[in-house]
Amino acid sequence: MVLFANFVLIPGLAYGAQLGLGALGVTLIFGILRFANFAHGELMAFGAMATILATWFLQAQGIGIAPLPTALLALPFGILATIAMALATDRTVYRFYRRKRVMPVILTIISAGVMFVTNGLVRFIIGPDNQNFADGDRFVVRVRDFKQATGLNEGLAIKMSQVLTVGIAVLVVVALFWFLQKTRSGKAMRAYSDNEDLALLSGIDPDRVVMIAWVITAAIATIAGVLYGLDKSFKPFIYMQLLLPIFAAAIVGGIGQPVGAILGGFVIAFSELSITYAYKKFLTYLAPEGWAPEGLVQLLSTDYKFAVSFIILVAVLLVRPTGIIRGKVL
Amino acid sequence: MTRNGYYYFAAMAALLLAVGFGQSWNVAFGILNLCLISAVMALGVNIQWGYAGLFNVGTMGFAALGGLTVVLISMPPVAEAWAAGGLGLGLAVLCIGATVGAIALVRRLVPPGRRRLWATIATVVVGFILIRSVYDPAVERIEAINPAHTGYLGGLGLPVVVSWLVGGVVAAGAAWLIGKITLGLRSDYLAIATLGISEIIIAILKYEEWLSRGVKNVSGLPRPVPYEVDLISADWFSAFANWFGGDPGSTASIVVKISYAILFLTVLAIIMWLSERALHSPWGRMMRAIRDNRDAASAMGKDVTRRHLQVFVLGCAVCGIAGAMLTTMDGQLTPGSYIPLRFTFLVWVMVILGGSGNNWGAVLGGFVIWFLWIEAEPLGNWLMRMITLYMEDGSWLKQHLIASAAYSRLILMGGILLVVMRFAPGGLIPEK
User: How far is the CA of A129 from the CAs of A49, A123, A237, in angstroms?
Assistant: First the structure.
């Protein structure tokens, strides 16, 4: 049980929250602007980069909020910078095509171009190396303390970054839902996403809706990027690799549905972890003596971890394309 | 081809000549070879996008399949590995077939509902356990045979040029399977699905060592052209090199590159001729009609899905041939070198810049973008040095700028894509 919690449940929760936040951004853009934003991973990278720069500045000044990482304090600055970047991109690149009402696939190609440019920009500004910017306490529950407290053989560790990830993700989701359900702008966005023409007829300002969508997406992307960078470390190209699991999460949960994005994030994260987890120790505990399995007893080898989310994505696209929570029909 | 097109090709030739005189002929011919391969890949993508409007972001996977075929066709078979694990693998394939058949049977016999779902899941689970119990030991035995040198099954030992054709066929087969499943999706979903599938293909190449030696790479692939060492040691060659005015080493290398260039040019010419014939035929007109107005074409009785599948298969076959040529020229299969950026997105920029829907445009785009991609780094370095000439050495900004010249390639490619799509969506050589 503890094994399961330590190696599958807790990492799965953290990873699922990170994917879910990323998928939220993708699903918002898909719902409002109606195209698959390939540049979302790079937006997360940009947000993380801006926050790292602000963190370094704060750390140099000696400001900190131990035991929490300083990055949290720097987060607002990162968010502001990313919002500016997203709005600038929309104004210079996407708006032209929106006015022309091009096919969604053209916008996707354009977003691939934006992805290139943002990737180059991030590497240009911060360099291609690993950046470890987490400070503050590393663990909330240590393996040793857990073993002493419960007397079990297996240890359990909860990292600070994991607690933060899940906690902040919950806050963000709650805030977003409150915004979408309770405020007028949120209702306008939902109406625009549901039926564009009818919404325009009702007098909703499309430019304002788009602007709010980008602002929210940029903020969520920054938070997701920073949380991922705190949990693992920051490498500029890792966010491009995250793009496919994030798309998988958004589509599995139901494109255009925020609840679906979060759900999808957890589905993908837990599938990845449980399919590639080595059940050997687990079975050794459960099975009678002498029945220890020979190999690692993995369903698929660890190398296929990324492939799992792609397989799930393709399977969902074929079997149930609207996703778990019925999203947009293809 | 438009009159501007001739000018563009002439300018491209001039650029390559400039590289030859300015940097070295070795570099120039090396770039030419990769330009030719990129042109073939761009042709493949253009067949899908320009003829039928299919957004296939999975060209990397099909190029990798082409490379795998080179290994599977031209490397000598490893007899002990076949003896050790061949039977087990064959059994595993049978088990896979049996499981698929069982699933199909279950879904047909049991009436739809909860019971069918559980029956399907049970069949999948049982089948999976069965397959793994046969597959894993066989793979272990194969990989245990001399892992430093082989550790895999080897190939058929046929001539290399055959593998190019077969590479196309293998890629076409995979494309048929994938297209059957995914072509019903809308364009941006198709993009995501094909991207995912190509990642799965690359993952299989990287981790199934019994097939492709995985990350240990397969080197020493047979060549269709002579080896440089053989040339240098041949008697007549030193005389030839002297007459040419160069040393035997670099002349040998240039001769080898020119031989490759001739081979690739032949392949490109054949594919180009076939594509142009197809484009200007009734079939080509029908494809463009489907692309431009799917519903009208469907109303006139054209089977849209089948035509899309045809085009998908053809385009991916061409990409497979290009991948096979690339692996042959490299001399080794490196699964780790297949990154989406270099293969998929770069080829898309080629097609868009050159002119989507126009074969000559795709070829031109292949040449121009590959040339820019290679020359951007030295050019960027040179540019940065010029800009920072007046800064003091050791200043953080100067070091940072010079070190970052490498990423200017990415920004350049993205910038080209955005600018072309905005201001000249037809590309350099537009469709009509």
Answer: 12, 9, 10
Q: Distance (Å, rounded) from C-alpha B13 to C-alpha B17?
A: 6
Asked if A321 and B185 come within 8 Å (Cβ–Cβ), the reply is: yes
Q: How far apart are CA A108 and CA A99, in angstroms?
A: 16
* Cβ-count burial B383-393 (b if 16+ within 10 Å, e if not): ebeeebeeeee
Beta strands in chain A (DSSP E): 139-141, 158-159
Question: Contact, B49 vs B350, CB < 8 A?
Answer: no
From A295, A301, A318, residue closest to B181, measured CB to CB: A318
Q: What is the mean pLDDT of residues B400-419?
A: 80
Percent of chain B with pLDDT over 70: 96
Burial of B216 (0-12, 13-18, 19+ CB in 10 A): middle
Question: Which of A49, A105, A115, A251 should we substitute to test contact with B (largest number of B Cβ atoms within 10 Å)?
Answer: A105
Least confident segment among A149-153, B46-50, B105-109: A149-153
Whether residue A266 has pLDDT greater than 70: yes
Q: What is the nearest CA distance from B316 to chain A, expressed in angstroms?
A: 19
Burial of A83 (0-12, 13-18, 19+ CB in 10 A): buried
**Residues B307 and B287 sit within 8 Å (Cβ to Cβ):** yes
A127 contact B CB<8A = yes
| Residues in B 294-353 with any Cβ partner in A closer than 8 A | 341, 345, 348-349, 352
Question: Is ipTM > 0.85 here?
Answer: no
Q: Which chain B positions have a beta carbon within 8 Å of A127's beta carbon? A: 400, 403-404
Residue A134 has pLDDT above 80, yes or no: no
Indicate if the pLDDT at residue B291 is higher than 50: yes
Buried (b) or exposed (e) across A195-214, using 16+ Cβ within 10 A? eeeebeeeebeeeebbbbbb
How many whole angstroms separate alpha carbon B5 and alpha carbon A317?
Answer: 41
Find the CB nearest A108 among B188, B400, B409.
Answer: B188
Which two three-digit tokens encode residue B265? 């040019």
Pairwise CA distance, residues B418 & A114, whole Å:
8
Q: Which long-range contacts (CB under 8 A, 24 or more apart) does A166-170 make?
A: A166/A13, A166/A14, A166/A17, A168/A223, A168/A227, A169/A17, A169/A18, A169/A20, A169/A21, A169/A227, A169/A262, A170/A17
Query: Angle, nearest 10°, between helix axes A104-126 and B346-354?
Result: 120
CB A166 within 8 A of CB A17: yes
Structure-token pair, residue A111: 């977003």
As to burial, measured by CB atoms within 10 angstroms (0-12 exposed, 13-18 middle, 19+ buried), residue A294 is: exposed
B375 pLDDT more than 80: yes
Chain A CB contacts of B215 below 8 Å: none
β partners of residue A159: A139
Give the span between the Cα atoms of A230 and A133, in whole angstroms.
Answer: 7
Closest CA to B1 of B423, B359, B356: B359
d(CA B145, CA B147): 6
Tell me if A249 sits within 8 A of A317, measured CB to CB.
Answer: no
Quickly state the pLDDT bin for B132 (edges 50, 70, 90): confident
A296 touches A284 (CB < 8 A): no
Whole-number Å distance between alpha carbons of A54 and A81 = 10
